[in-house]
Amino acid sequence: MAGGSNKPKKGLIIAGALAAAFGMGLLAYHELNTRVLAPTRSIIMRNEASGPRQQEEEAVPKGEAGKEAESDTQERAEDVSVGGAGMAAEGDAAGETSFIGEESAMEAALAHANVAQEDTSYLECHVDYEDGRAKCYDVEFQVGNTEYEYEIDLYDGSILESSMDANADGRHGNGHKAAAQTDGTYIGGEAAWAKALAHAGVGESEVTGKEVELDGDDGRMVYEIEFDAGRTEYEYEIDAVSGEILKWDEKRRDSQRG
After folding, report:
1. Which domain-ending residue is among 94, 114, 149?
2. What is the average pLDDT across 221-245?
3. CA dist 143 to 101, 120, 131, 156, 199, Å?
4. Staple partner for 226: which of 48, 172, 211, 233, CB 3.0–4.6 Å?
5. Confidence of residue 32 (pLDDT cuts 50, 70, 90)
6. Which residues contact residue 145 at a Cβ distance below 8 angstroms, ignoring those fewer than 6 apart?
C-alpha cells in the first residue's frame, strides 16, 4: 500500500514539471514574438507610413513652416523697407558731403559776373530746397546799384540760372536807381545784339528765336533782347545810349536735377 501511494505523487510531480516547462515555453515564445517579431511589424508599418499618409502628415508642419517663413520674409521685407528709408536719409546726408560748399558756389557766381568779393555791398548764399530736397545754391550779391542773383549746381558748380539788374533799388546796400535818360544817340540794335552775344559767350550760329526790341524803361531807352542757345534761355536789357548791360537773365531748361 505504501509503495502504491508513491506512484500518484510521482505522476503529479511529472505532470507539474511538464506544465511548468510548457508554460516557460509559451513565455519564451511570447518574449521572442515581442522582442523580434514586433519590431519587424513596426518597421513595416513605418515603411507603409512613408506613403501618401506620411506625406500628408508632413505637409502640415511644412505648411506651418512655410507660413512662418513667409511671415519672416515679410518682416525682413518691412525691415528692408524701413532700412531703405534710413539708407536714403543717410544717402541724402552723405550727398551733402559731396556738395561743392557755399564758398565754392559764391566763387563761381562772382567769377561769372566778373565781380570781386570786396566790391560787393552784401553777399549771401544758401542751399535752396524744393519738396524737401536740396535743389541748388542760391547766391545773391550787389555792387553799387547792380544786383545779381544766381542758382548754382550743388555738385559741379555750374550756372543753372543767373540774373543781373543794374536798376536795383539799393535795399541791400548804398545803391540808387538809375537817373532818367532824356537824350543821347542810340547805339543801334545790331550793336546791342553783339554785346549780348559777347556777354553770353554764344555764337550767332547757335542762336534760335532771336528778338531785339527798343523800349522805354523807367525813363531810359533800352534794347530788350531774347534768344535761345541749346538748352539755355537768355534775356538782356541794354542801355540804348551807353550800351551798358542793365539787366540779364540766363536760365537752363534742364536746371533741376533728377
Report:
1. 94
2. 94
3. 23, 5, 32, 26, 18
4. 211
5. low
6. 166, 167, 168, 169, 170, 175, 176, 177, 178
Residue 66 CA, distance from chain mean position: 33
| 57 phi, psi to nearest 5 deg | -65, -40
3-state helix, strand and coil shares in percent for the chain, rounded to the nearest 5: 50, 30, 25
Domain that holds residue 255: 179-258
How far does Cα 159 stand from its chain's mean position?
A: 24
- 204 DSSP 8-state letter: G
Contact 166, 247 (CB under 8 A): yes
Instruction: Report, as an integer, the average pLDDT of 14-22.
Output: 69
Count of domains forming the chain: 3
Same domain for 258 and 195, yes or no, is yes
Q: Are residues 108 and 153 in the same domain?
A: yes
| Helix extents (H) in the chain | 2-32, 38-49, 52-97, 102-113, 189-200
Indicate if the pLDDT at residue 149 is higher than 90.
yes
Question: In b/e form, how buried is each residue of 223-249, taking b as 16+ CB within 10 angstroms?
Answer: bbbebebeebbbbbbbbbbeeebbbbb
What is the mean pLDDT of the segment spanning 139-161?
94
**What's the rounded Cα separation, in Å, for the pair 195 and 244?**
9
Query: What's the pLDDT score for residue 253?
Result: 82
- Kindly state whether residues 163 and 113 are assigned to the same domain: yes
Please check the confidence at residue 127 and state whether its pLDDT lies above 60. yes
Question: What mean pLDDT comes out for the span 149-158?
Answer: 96
Are residues 145 and 188 part of one domain?
no
